[in-house]
Amino acid sequence: MLTLICHVRAELGERLSLSGTPLGERAIAEVKALTMSGNRLNASLAGKAAADWLIVAPDRSFSLLDVRFTARTDDDVLIFVQYNGRLRFSTEGHLHKVVVAPRFETGDPRYAWLNGVQAVGNGEFDARARSLRYAFYAVE
């Protein structure tokens, strides 16, 4: 069973591309802004240490994601979020499918339930707007 944790919206900054690395093309995009909103979790980006690190497949059909950020809840609790996943590039437009597996870390007892959650998320990346939209679900 999947239970909605929150909806996520993120705005990305400039994309930095490194071609010819040992693993292929690597792309890095800083997260400029982020909000998480839902019945159990409402937060926004805390600090500036947040980015999407991608490895783009040689055929450019997908990329492997490594994303990390810290969120601050509306009641001032810090939560570290990290996820891996895949971005599947569309050949027909600027909207690309994203599937991820987030995990959360916090020391605050009000959000300790997140520490034991395995989550999944799905959404899309809008390449024109440089924005991401997800829904994160707890797998129960």
Describe the structure.
It contains no helices and nine strands. The chain has strands at residues 2-21, 24-37, 43-45, 51-56, 62-73, 78-88, 95-105, 119-126, 131-139. Strands 1, 2, 3, 4, 5, 6, 7, 8 and 9 form a nine-stranded antiparallel β-sheet that branches. With 140 residues, the chain is an all-beta fold.
Write the layout of secondary structure elements.
Elements: E1 2-21, E2 24-37, E3 43-45, E4 51-56, E5 62-73, E6 78-88, E7 95-105, E8 119-126, E9 131-139
Antiparallel strand pairs: 1-2, 1-9, 2-3, 2-4, 3-5, 4-5, 5-6, 6-7, 7-8, 8-9
**What's the number of helices?**
0
Percent helix, as a range, is: under 10%
* β-sheet strand percentage: over 45%
What is the mean predicted local confidence, pLDDT? Answer: 96
Count of individual beta strands = 9
Query: Which runs of at least 5 residues are low in confidence (pLDDT < 50)?
Result: none
- The shape, in one word, is globular
- Rg over alpha carbons: 15 Å
Helix-strand pattern:
EEEEEEEEE
**What kind of sheet is the major sheet?**
9 strands, antiparallel
Head-to-tail CA distance between termini: 5 Å
Give the tags.
140 residues, mainly beta
Structure summarized in a few sentences:
It is built from no helices and nine strands.
